[in-house]
Amino acid sequence: MARSRLTPEREAELYAAVLDLLREVGYDALTMDAIAARTHSSKATLYRQWGSKPELVAHAMRHNKPIKLVDVDTGTLRGDFHAVMAHTDDCQMEKDSALMRGLFHAVHDNPDLLQALRELLIEPELNGLAQILQRAVDRGEIAADNPALKYVTHMLVGAIVARQLIEDRSPDGSFLTSYFDAVVLPALGV
Predict the structure, then answer these.
(1) How many other C-beta atoms can be found within 10 angstroms of the C-beta atom of residue 154?
(2) What is the per-residue DSSP string for 51-75?
(3) Contact 60, 19 (CB under 8 A)
(4) What distances in angstroms separate CA 33 from CA 8, 54, 59, one per listed residue?
C-alpha cells in the first residue's frame, strides 16, 4: 500500500478527526464518506492511504498513544511503569477507555477490525511490555520462572476494566500507578 504525500501534521489532523467521529457515532455508524467530509479529503485518498476503515481506525488509535512502551527504559520496572504513567493524561485516558470499550463491542461483528487492532495496536503494545519485562528479568528484578510474568497484561487490562465495572469510574494514572505498585509488582516478586 502506497502511503505517501501526507505531512505528519495532516496525518495527525486526519487521525484526530477519525477518533472524534468514532466517539460521536461509534464504529458501526462511522463511514469513509463521513471521514472524508470531516477531513476535507476524498474517499479515494483515504482508501489509497489506509486501504480500509478498520486499518484507518487502528492507525488512528496507534497514533493516539502518548508513548511507545518499547522506548521506555528507566533502569527499573517500577520506574518504567511510572514513566509510562507520567506521559499519560487522565482526561485522554478517560476518552480512550470509552473509545476502546466501544471498539471491543464492535470487534464481535467486525473480524477485520479485530485483525487491524491486533496488528497495529495490541501486538506492538504487548511486544513493548514484553521487552520491559524481559529487561527486568535480565536485570534480576524478576525471576525468569515467575508464573505471574505471563499474566501481567491480564492484570493491567483487568484493572482497567474492573475500575469501570466496580467503581463506575474510568481508570486514571493515580489508580493504575497504585494498582501496579500494590498488585503487579508484588505478584512479580519485586
Answers:
(1) 10
(2) SSHHHHHHHHHHHT-SS-GGG---S
(3) yes
(4) 22, 14, 18
Please determine, for residue 70, whether its predicted confidence score (pLDDT) is greater than 80.
Answer: yes
Per-residue pLDDT at 71: 87
Q: Which residue has the higher pLDDT, 125 or 147?
A: 147
Burial class of residue 173, CB neighbours in 10 A (0-12, 13-18, 19+): middle
CB pairs under 8 A, 24+ apart, for 128-131?
Answer: 128/68, 128/69, 128/70, 128/71, 128/72, 129/69, 129/153, 131/69, 131/70
C-alpha cell at position 178: 497504585
Task: Record the cell numbers describing residue 104, joined without a space.
Answer: 471491543
pLDDT at 170 over 70: yes
Output the pLDDT for position 4. 59
Rg, the chain, Cα only: 18
How far is residue 129's CA from residue 46's CA, in Å, rounded to a whole number?
31
* Single pTM value for the model: 0.81
Contacts of 33 (CB under 8 A, 6+ apart): 43
- How do the residues of the chain divide into helix, strand and coil, expressed in percent and rounded to 5? 75, 0, 25
State which amino acid sits at residue 29: A
Q: Which element (helix H / strand E) includes 12? A: helix 8-25
